Amino acid sequence: MFHGPLQTSVREKRKVKVKPYTFLGIPYYVLLSSLIIIPLLLIIVYAVTIQEQGLYYKFTLIYFRQFFNEHEFVKVMADSIVLALMTTLICLFIGYPLAYFITKRKPITQAILVLLITAPMWVNMLIRTVAWKQIFDMINPRLLGTDFAIIVGMVYVFLPFMVLPIYTVLSKIDPLLYEASADLGGSNLKTFRKVTLPLSISGVLSGITMVLLPAATTMVIPRYLGQNRVLIGTLIERKFYDSGNWGYGAAIAIILSLIIMVMVLFTKKLDRNKEVERDEKA
Question: For 179, which of 30, 74, 143, 207 is 20 to 30 Å away at the CA?
C-alpha cells in the first residue's frame, strides 16, 4: 500500500493526545455558564418578551418604551450614574496616591498596609453601612439622606476595589525604568508622568470598572445612609419582588448595563499600553 505524505499527516493527527491540563478549564466554563451566561440570557428573554394568554411569549419592546416614558425613572437612573461617577472619581483620587505610597514602602510594610486596607472587607457590608449611619447620627443627623452621606458610604465600601488593582500594577513596574529615567535627567515629576502613570493605566481602568458598576447598583447604602432613597438598584429590586414585573425589572437592568458598558469601553480607549503591545507583537 502506498504511504504518501497525506496519509502520514492523517496518522500524526490521530496520534495527537489531549493534554491533561486542558480539563482544568472545565469547572471555569461550567461556573461561567451557570452563573453568568444563563442568567444573562434569562434577563434578556424577560426584557424582550411578554406572555399572552398564558400560552406563549411574544417579542416586545414595551418595557423599554415604558421606562423612557416615565421621566421619574429616567431621573433615578441619572442620579444613580452621577453618584457612581462621583464615587469612582473620589476613589481614584484617594486610591492612586495611596497605592503609589504603599509601593514605595518595604515589602513587610506593604503587606501590613494592604492588610489594613482589605480588613474592612472581611466585615459584612450591611454592618459597615449601619456603623456609618450611627456615625452620621452622632455628627449631624441632617446629613443622612443627602448625596454626601451616600457618597461617603460608597467611597468607604468600594475604595479597596480601586486601591488593589492599581497597587498590583504599580508593584510590577521594573525599578530599572526609574533608574533609566533618572540617568536621562528626568525629574521625579517627569518620571511619574512619563513612566509611572502610563504603565499604571491598566490598573486604573480595572479599578474604575470594579467601582463604577457596584456603586451604580448598590441598594444597601442608599437604604440606610440615604434614608430609603430610591436609586436604580432599589428600583430594579422593587420591580422584581414588590410588583412582580420581572420583564420591566430586566429591561431596566439591561439599560443600566448598556450605559455602564459604554462608559467602560470609553475609558478603555485611554489605555495606550495595549496599542503599544499590539505594535510590538506585529
Answer: 207
Cell of 196: 509611572
pLDDT of residue 2: 47
The CATH class, in words, for 72-281 is mainly alpha
Q: Determine which helix (DSSP H) or strand (DSSP E) holds 49, and give its type and residue range.
A: strand 49-52
Kindly report the number of other CB atoms within 10 A of residue 232's CB atom: 26
Calpha distance 215→224 (Å, rounded): 15
| Domain residue limits, the chain | 22-60, 72-281
Q: How far is it, in rounded angstroms, from Cα 33 to Cα 164?
A: 27
Task: Output the CA torsion sign for 197, 198, 203, 209.
Answer: positive
Listed residue (155, 40, 37) closest to 98, CA to CA: 155
CB atoms within 10 A of CB 97: 12
Grid cell of 17 as nine digits? 493526545
Q: DSSP code of 87?
A: H
Contacts of 209 by beta carbon, 8 Å cutoff, 6+ apart: 264, 267
Ramachandran assignment for 230, one of left (phi > 0), alpha (psi -120 to 50 degrees), beta (any other): beta
The residue ranges of the chain whose pLDDT is under 50 are 1-2, 6, 10, 275-282
Residue 51 β-bridge partners: 57
